[in-house]
Design brief:
Layout (H helix, E strand, L loop, with lengths): L8 E5 L6 E7 L4 H8 L9 E10 L1 H16 L5 E3 L3 H13 L13 H38 L6 H11 L4 H23 L8 H39 L2 H7 L4 H40 L3 H11 L3 H7 L1 H18 L5 H33 L2
Parallel strand pairs: 2-3, 3-4
Antiparallel strand pairs: 1-2
Helix pairs in contact: 1-2, 2-3, 4-9, 4-12, 5-9, 6-7, 6-9, 7-9, 7-11, 7-12, 7-13, 9-12, 12-13
Length: 376
Amino acid sequence: MIEGTKPHVTVHAADGSGDIRVSGVLTIYTVTLAQTELQKLQPGEVPRLDLSGLTRLDTAGAWALVSLKARFDKAGHTLAFTQVSPEAASLLDSVEHAMPNPETRAAARLTVSDRLDRFGRRVFGGMLYLRALTAYLGIFLHRLGRALRHPSEFSVTSLVHHCEEVGLKAVPIVSLMAFLIGVVLAFQGSTQLRQFGAEVFVVDLIAISILRELGILLTAIIVAGRTASAFTAAIGSMKMREEIDAMRTLGLDPAMNLFVPRILALFIMLPILGLIANIAGLFGGALMAWIDLGISPAMFQTRLVEGTSVTHVFVGLVKAPVFALIIGVVGCHAGMQVQSNAESLGRMTSNAVVAAIFAVIVADAVFSIFFARIGI
C-alpha cells in the first residue's frame, strides 16, 4: 500500500447478474465497514459472492466472509465464493476450519449410517491417497527415464548433495542404533538361552534377526523420520514461497529438479546404510556375547560363517530399494500438497513421517509373508 493512501472496501452488485462483488482492501482496517455492508445481505437473495475485486485480504477480512457464509448456512441457504485467488482460498479455508462449531454433534449421538458414512469416506480417501502416490511414482520413473535418454537435463551435483544429506549424515545415528540393537538382542537372547544350555545359538539369533529383518527395517524407519520430513519441509517451503511456480515460469521441470535427485539419492544410499547397520549390529552383538557369555570374537565369527546363510543378507538388502522408493515418494508428494500457510507445512510434514513409517512396516510385513511362502 502506498503511504498516505487510505484503505477502502466496497460491497456492490455485480454488473448483469444477481451476484454481489466485494472490491478493494478487506483487512482489519476496513473490516468494520465491510461487516456493516455484509450484514445487509439477506439469505436467499445472494447466491454468490464475487471476490475478484479484492486486492488484499487478511485474517480479519476472511473472518467476516466466513461469518457471512455461516449465517447463510444456518438459514438454510448456500453462499458460494467465486473468482477467488489461490492465496485467498487457502486463507478462507484456514479461517473456516479454525472457527468454533458449538453445534457439533456428540459422538454418542452418531447413528449407524453416520458411522458407515464416515468409514466409507476414510476408505475412499485412503484409496485416493494411494492413487496419488502411484501417480508420483510414475512421474519419478518417467523423469528418470528421460534423464537417462537426455543426461544433460539431469543435475549430478544435486544428486551428490542429496546423497550426502540422506546417506553420509545419517551414518552416525544408524550405526549407533544398530549397535545398541545388537547389544540388546545378545543380552536378552543369552538370558533366555542360558536356561537350556544353548548359549552358543545366540549367534544365530543375532545374525538372522539383524541381517534379515531388524537391520534394514530400523534403518528405514530412522531414514523415514529423518528424510521424509526433510523432503516435505524443503519442497513445501519452496511451494509456500512460490519458487516452484517460478521454476515452471523459467521452463524448469520441478519433478526433474526436485523429485528425481532426492528419490534417486535415497535409492542409492539406503542399501548402503542397511549394510552399515548390519555390520554395526553384528559388532554390538559380538561384543555383548563376549562380555556376557564368554563367546570370543573368533568363535562368534566361526559360528556366524557356519550357521548363517548368505541368503539372509540378500533377503534384508533386497527390501532397501523398495523402502527407499516409498519414503521418497511419500515425502515429495506431501511437500507438493503444502498450501500457502505455515500450519499446512507442519501438518504435511507430520503426515509424511507417519505415512512413510507405516508404509515401510506394511511393506516389510508383505516381504516377510512373500519370502516365507516361497521358502527363502
